[in-house]
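Exercise 7. Given the encoded structure of a 217-residue chain, write a plausible sequence.
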């Protein structure tokens, strides 16, 4: 049985890239506990996709409060859990805020953020999944969540570019950047096992993993 020397792993990436699926697979493989965002619990999200300008600030503040609450749970459970795996990191909140909020809203948001995110646990490893805009759109379509079908291409591209920029400079944790364009981490055991090998090798710094899809047998 494989083992991991990491105690806290974060899987990140833009909407639809496959974060939550990978978190659940890793938790099953290593008997870890999961910490998952619940976008469906944000009462403003659907309104945001219908009218972004009107609902951007309450949507973002609602997500921020949810993420802070989840992060507190993470710290409380630290002493009692061997492995914790999350599908978000606190810093991602600002990625979305910088895209969706105007200057005045962003000033209010930043004041709130700075006052309630003073103690964040740093991940032992961050896995950043990347994929192109057409792949993200296809995956969003396939999972069939109604309000996500309203995501505009321009917004999705801006979000993907902002993630890439953020992780270009990220150095707070060991970072594995995965090109998830052609691999299937849900249905392909070979693709998944190949990724596990990469995860097992990274202990510091930044690594890039650009796999080809496993051959169909």
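Solution.
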């Amino acid at each position: 049985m494989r083992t991991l020397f990491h105690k806290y792993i974060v899987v990140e990436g833009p909407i639809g890239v496959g974060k939550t699926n990978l978190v659940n697979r890793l938790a099953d493989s290593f008997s870890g506990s999961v910490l998952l965002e619940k976008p469906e619990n944000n009462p403003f999200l659907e309104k945001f996709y219908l009218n972004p300008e009107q609902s951007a600030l309450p949507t973002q503040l609602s997500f921020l409060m949810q993420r802070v609450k989840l992060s507190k749970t993470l710290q409380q459970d630290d002493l009692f859990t061997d492995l914790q795996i999350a599908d978000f990191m606190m810093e991602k909140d600002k990625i979305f805020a910088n895209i969706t909020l105007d200057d005045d809203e962003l000033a209010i948001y930043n004041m709130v953020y700075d006052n309630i995110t003073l103690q964040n646990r740093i991940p032992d490893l961050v896995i950043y999944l990347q994929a192109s805009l057409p792949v993200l759109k296809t995956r969003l379509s396939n999972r069939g969540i109604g309000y996500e079908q309203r995501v505009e291409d321009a917004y999705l591209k801006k979000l993907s570019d902002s993630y890439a920029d953020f992780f270009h400079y990220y150095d707070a944790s060991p970072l594995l950047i995965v090109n998830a364009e052609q691999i299937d981490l849900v249905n392909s055991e070979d693709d998944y096992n190949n990724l596990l090998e990469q995860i097992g090798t990274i202990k510091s710094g930044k690594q890039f993993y650009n796999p080809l899809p496993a051959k169909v047998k």
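Remark. The chain is about 50% helix and 10% strand. Students should compare their own answers with the one above.
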